[in-house]
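Researcher: Structure prediction, please.
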Amino acid sequence: QIHHIPLRVVQTESNFEKELASFLKEQNISIRDRKLIYPFELDIVLAEWNLAIECNGNYWHSIGHDSLRDKTYHQKKTELVESKGYQLLHIREWEWNNKRDIIQSMILAKVNKIENKIYARKCKIKMVELSIAKEFYETNHIQGYHHAKQHYGLYHGGSLVFMCSFSKSPRIKNSIELIRMATLLNTQVVGGASKLIKYFIRENNINELYSYANRDYSTGKVYESLGFKFIKKTSPSYEYYDGNNFISRFKFQKHKHHIPKEITETEYFLSQGYRIYYNSGNKLYKLSTVEIKR
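Model: Predicted structure follows.
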C-alpha cells in the first residue's frame, strides 16, 4: 500500500469502460497517458481538460462482509488526482447503464463540447411545480430529485432549461441550503446559476446560503465562481447495493429495522448480503449575501 490506497497491479478493462472510451472517441476526445498518479491506475485521463475518469464497477468498488477495501478509497484517490490539478470524475457501472445520457452530457460539459448555448438574460424566472421539478431532476441530474421546499426555474422559449431548489438545511441548523441545481441535458445556460441564486436571495431576504458539492462529480469550482467560500470537506457518505440497485442509507437506519442492539447497522446489513459503496465525500460552501441584496 502507498498512501493507504490498496494497489491493484493487474489492469483490466470493463465493458462499460470500453463503451465510455468509444463514446469519447466518437466525440473526438483524446485519451492520453494514464500514469498521472503512478503507480496507481486511472481508467481514463483527458489531459487536455485536466480531467480523469474512474469507471467503478458495482461489485468491485463496493465493500462486502469480507472485504478489506478501505471506505476512504475513493476519497483518497480523488485527493491524489486533485493534487495534480485534475478533477477525478467517478462513474458507477449502474449509473452508466441507467443514466448514460446524463453522464455523457456531464462529460461534454466538462470538456467544453456543449453546442446548445443559452444566455440567462434571455430567460424568464418562474416557480416550478413539484411534479415538474421531480421530472426535471430525474431526467437531468445524476443524483435525481431531492426533497426541497422551493423550486425556481429558467424558461427559454417556453421550455424549462435550468433549475435551482432551496430549503431549510437538513444538516446545518437554522440555515438555508441550495439543495439541487441542474441544467437541461446537452445545454449550457450562461449565467443561469447566478441569476436564479440572486433572485432567490433577494425575494426571500436570505443572509447566508450553504451548499454541498459531491466530490464524485464536482470540484466545487462552480460555487467559487458564484462567490461561495469553501468551508470544509466531509467524510465519505455511503449507499447500499443489493446486487441490482443502489439504495439510500436512510432506508437502512437501525431504528427502522429489527436489528439486535449489540451490532451496528452496517454490520447487520453486510451480514445479510448487502454491499456498501462509499463515495468521495462532499465539499461544503457558504455564500454571504450582503453584497447581493444591495
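Model: The chain has nine helices and 15 strands.
Researcher: Thanks, that helps.
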